[in-house]
Amino acid sequence: MKAEAILFDLDGTMWNAVDGILRTWNEVVANHPECGRGLISEEELRGCFGLPMTEIAARLFPKAAGQQQEMLMDECCALENAYLSEHGGVLYPKLEETLLALKREYRLFVVSNCQKGYIESFIKAHQLEKCFDDIECWGNNLLPKGENNKLIMERNNVTRAVYVGDTAGDEESARVAGIPFVYASYGFGEANEPDYVLAEFAELPKIMEKIYFL
């Protein structure tokens, strides 16, 4: 039997929002010299993608106390969501047309380790409401991505799905959910032993044709 659904990571898989995130987070950093750090570099930010927000806060603001880390992260995320919902990010080539083609055969979902409101900003900015059946993220329930993969599948009565992502953490989340992993090699991270490799987003329909479940 063919797959019935595709679960997508967001950063490094469907879009690149690094510029907008850097702009907003560094605005927060500049407004809080007491946090004890300089501006965040692009390399630092890229190294945070895929991590839960608490881990990102600890990595970026090691000199701040736990409560202050949380406050800084909340401020960063709020400003980021507002900016991205208006300005968007850089979609990978042929993203919308590929999603619409996939939508004719599969149910589509987004599962991310991001804050609440981030996936909604992506969807709103690029008018992709018609593409996705449901979304879930760490910010909604503080669950790791693998558990949210299972949650969204259970909630939507899906048993045959794949996860598409660009990091080893994404790969692990697919293993936790017991589903194949499609590695977006054009993204931000690395994978260990992916089931399939996606060189560009527009190739996903062809890869999906190869995937069958017993």
Can you put this structure into words, describing what you see?
This protein is of the alpha/beta class. It folds into 2 domains: 5-15 and 90-208, 3-Layer(aba) Sandwich (Rossmann fold), CATH 3.40.50; 18-87, DNA polymerase, domain 1, CATH 1.10.150. The protein is built from 10 helices and 8 strands. The protein has helices at 18-31, 42-46, 53-60, 66-87, 95-103, 118-125, 138-141, 145-155, 168-177, 204-208, and strands at residues 5-8, 15-16, 90-91, 107-112, 134-137, 161-165, 181-184, 196-198. The strands form 2 sheets. A 6-stranded parallel sheet has the order 5-4-1-6-7-8, sandwiched between helices. Helix 8 crosses helix 9 (168-177). The protein starts with a strand and ends in a 6-residue tail after the last helix. The mean pLDDT is 96.
Overview features:
DNA polymerase, domain 1, 214 residues, 10 helices, alpha/beta, 14% strand, Rossmann fold, two-stranded antiparallel ribbon, 6-stranded parallel sheet
Sequence-ordered SSE layout with sheet pairings:
Elements: E1 5-8, E2 15-16, H1 18-31, H2 42-46, H3 53-60, H4 66-87, E3 90-91, H5 95-103, E4 107-112, H6 118-125, E5 134-137, H7 138-141, H8 145-155, E6 161-165, H9 168-177, E7 181-184, E8 196-198, H10 204-208
Parallel strand pairs: 1-4, 1-6, 4-5, 6-7, 7-8
Antiparallel strand pairs: 2-3
Helix pairs in contact: 1-4, 3-4, 4-6, 8-9
